[in-house]
Structures are given as C-alpha cells and as structure tokens.
C-alpha cells in the first residue's frame, strides 16, 4: 500500500492503548545514491509543542485518519542528522527532472517493501501553468541531491493548509531557516500575521527582516495591535519607527499607544480591541459580536460597555457584561441593564504580579483596563498574562530537555 506523505501531515498518532499522543508533522528519510530512500521514521509533535522521533519499525499500521505504534515512545526532542532529509519540510516544491524536463514535486509516496521496512517509491510532480500532474517512479526523477536556491513553497503550504496558526508556527520553527523564510514569504498577509503571533521572538524578527518594508508593514497591520507592539518592541528602534511610519495611520495608532506602556504592565500586555458596545445595544447584538470566529475565547468571554465612542480609548467606561449573563437575558434586553457592577477595572500601570492576582482572585478570563480619565483603553486576557509568565522560549517547547 502506498502512502502519500503530504497527506499524513496532522494525522493523529495513537499508542498501543488507543490514546492519542500527538500528530504527524513530517517523515524522515535517508537519501542513498542509486537507491530509493529508506524511511527512518516519523516526526511526531506531542505537547507541549515538542517534536519527537517515532522509528518506522515501531509503526504497527497507517490507515485513514490514524497512525498506531507499538512499544514506548522516546520523548527526547527530535534532532535531524546530517544524513537525513525531511520529506514535507525539504522535498516538497523541489525542482527535479523527469525525462529531461524540469518539474515540481508536490508529494512523494512511501511503501512497505518488507515487514517494517519502508521506502520512498513514487514522486508526484507537476509542470507548467496548467500544473499537468504525473506520478513517476523514484528512479525516474533526478535532482533531489541538489541544493536549490529558489525552491518554492506551494506544496508545503498546501500540506499546512488545515493546521491551526499555532501548529503551523511550530512546523515553521522546526524547518531549516532557508525553508522557513521561503514559506513565510509565500503566505498571504493575514495567514503570515496569525503565524507570526505564535512564533518565538527570534523567528519573528528573522522573518520580518527578510520582507520588503512595505510588506512587513502590511503584515503588522493584520496582527493584533498588542502582538504587533510586542514585535516592534523587540526590533531596533530605527526599524520599528520605519515600519510604524509605513502602516496605515488608523492601524498604527493603537500600536503606538501600546508602545508607550512598560512591557510588564497591564497597558503593555493588553489588547486594545476587546468587544465594546454602547449601553443601548441589545443582548442579541452582543451575542452576535462575540460569536465572531476570529475572537479568542478569552476576548469573547465578555462585552465591555462604554459611552461612545466605542473604539479605544472610548467614552466613559460603564462596566462589563459576561457571556453567561448574556445567555440568561432575553435577546431584547439592553446590555446597559446586564452589567456586572462588582468588577472594578484596573489601571494601565498595574504590574504583572498584581494583574495575575486580580484575575485569579475573581476567576476572570479578562479584565478591563481604564485610564485616569475613565476611558476604556483595552483588556488584559489570561492568555496575555500567560505569555508573560512563561519562560521566554516557551514557544520553542519545554525550556530544558532532561
């Protein structure tokens, strides 16, 4: 049975007891001159964002929607050897020659040739604007052993299409820097913005630095203002000022405001785009707003009620209405009549330990941030706080390996 590797990306991996322990992120092979590549094993991502190696000899079966293995999984972090190649990360989008014609690889197939022995047997390629597709034997394609400057990214992006932004960020982080940049440059602005928000600062800075300044500014505009501010804060001052100047004024304004606050304060952590409505809005309108799929659960957990204008910095802050309270009220009820008056707002200069205590004491997912003029300037969510409490390299997996 042939297994096309790109289709394996994201497939759940189950242990002998039937418990899911992770998902397939890549396939590791060894390239051999004059022979079909041997499959060494699978790269499996387990929580928290750790990539480990599953030898192919431990794989009991691969079927639609699952990979099942036997024995125990070594949780040591996967490290690619110099003699190994990642199929999804490095082979897809390569230019190879078939019948002396250049073609682009969009998938490869592996096959169990003997019990517990798998080889790469087929290569799926396309050519031309019409993308005429062919599946050829591995020996018919040449060029896999050639270093390529402009490899392209369409095939790898297609294999990542169904991944959540956090999972795609993890996949990008694990790629060689050249491939990471190729993929990032080929992503649409909004998708790249979502992925950048989930990458470690070093990767963010490295990718942003490879983009034309105008493109980098466009991507920053697609990011949440708090994430854009955090990224700009890590850049050299001159580069940050250049990118801010290239952003649309209305997109740059909230980012500039956030940059005025110290990083470890409520103002430095908050999002400036919570759900805000006037007191005359109805519960039905409020529920429609928090149903937006692009809102995180923490942001969608409450609606902030203010006098107009309802964009930060708002008119006078009136209070917060929680999601559960909104569900209990008739749809025609005004949100001004569904305010929780027991929750006091916090000031932008409140430090991280105090913000953490505030959220914990009141069992809140988010807290309103109000300035000295009584205006809502943003909201601190529990995920904002976690970002600042966790080690700086938490997005790269565990801080240390045992």
Automatic annotation (TrEMBL):
One of its GO terms (molecular function) is magnesium ion transmembrane transporter activity. The keyword Nucleus does not apply. Pfam families: CBS, MgtE_N, SH3_actinomycetes. It comes from the Bacteria. SUPFAM superfamilies: CBS-domain pair (SSF54631), MgtE N-terminal domain-like (SSF158791), PRC-barrel domain (SSF50346). InterPro entries: CBS_dom (IPR000644), CBS_dom_sf (IPR046342), Mg_transptr_MgtE_intracell_dom (IPR006668), MgtE_N_sf (IPR038076), MgtE_transporter (IPR006669), PRC_barrel-like_sf (IPR011033), SH3_actinomycetes (IPR058838). One of its GO terms (cellular component) is membrane. Gene3D superfamilies: CBS-domain, MgtE N-terminal domain-like. Keywords: CBS domain. Residues 339-396 form the CBS domain. This is Mg/Co/Ni transporter MgtE (Contains CBS domain).
């Amino acid at each position: 049975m042939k297994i096309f590797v790109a289709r394996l990306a994201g497939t759940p991996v189950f242990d002998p007891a039937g418990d899911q322990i992770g998902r397939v992120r890549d396939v590791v092979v060894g390239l051999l001159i004059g022979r079909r590549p041997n499959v060494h094993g699978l790269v499996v991502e387990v929580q928290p964002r750790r990539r480990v190696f599953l030898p192919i000899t431990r794989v009991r079966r691969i079927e639609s929607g699952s990979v099942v293995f036997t024995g125990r999984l070594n949780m040591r972090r996967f490290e690619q050897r110099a003699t190994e190649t990642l199929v999804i990360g490095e082979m897809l989008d390569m230019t190879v020659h078939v019948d002396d014609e250049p073609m682009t690889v969009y998938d490869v197939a592996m096959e169990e040739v003997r019990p517990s022995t798998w080889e790469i047997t087929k290569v799926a390629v396309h050519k031309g604007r019409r993308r005429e597709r062919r599946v050829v034997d591995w020996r018919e394609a040449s060029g896999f052993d050639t270093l390529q400057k402009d490899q392209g990214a369409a095939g790898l992006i297609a294999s990542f299409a169904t991944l959540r932004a956090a999972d795609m960020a993890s996949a990008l982080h694990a790629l060689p820097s050249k491939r990471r940049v190729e993929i990032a440059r080929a992503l649409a602005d909004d998708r790249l913005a979502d992925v950048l928000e989930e990458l470690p600062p070093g990767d963010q800075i490295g990718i942003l630095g490879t983009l034309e300044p105008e493109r980098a500014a466009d991507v920053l505009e697609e990011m949440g203002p708090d994430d854009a501010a955090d990224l700009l804060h890590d850049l050299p001052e001159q580069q940050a000022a250049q990118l801010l100047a290239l952003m649309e004024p209305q997109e740059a304004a909230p980012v500039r405001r956030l940059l005025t606050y110290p990083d470890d304060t409520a103002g430095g952590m908050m999002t400036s785009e919570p759900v805000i409505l006037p007191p005359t809005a109805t519960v039905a309108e409020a529920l429609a707003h928090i149903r937006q799929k692009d809102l995180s659960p923490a942001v969608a957990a409450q609606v902030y009620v203010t006098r107009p204008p309802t964009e930060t910095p708002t008119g006078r802050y009136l209070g917060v209405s929680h999601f559960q309270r909104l569900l209990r009220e008739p749809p025609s009820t005004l949100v001004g009549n569904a305010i929780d008056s027991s929750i006091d707002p916090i000031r932008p200069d409140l430090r991280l330990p105090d913000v953490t205590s505030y959220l914990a004491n009141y069992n809140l997912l988010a807290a309103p941030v109000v300035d000295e003029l009584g205006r809502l300037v943003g909201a601190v969510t529990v995920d904002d706080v976690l970002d600042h409490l966790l080690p700086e390299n938490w997005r790269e997996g565990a801080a240390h390996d045992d």
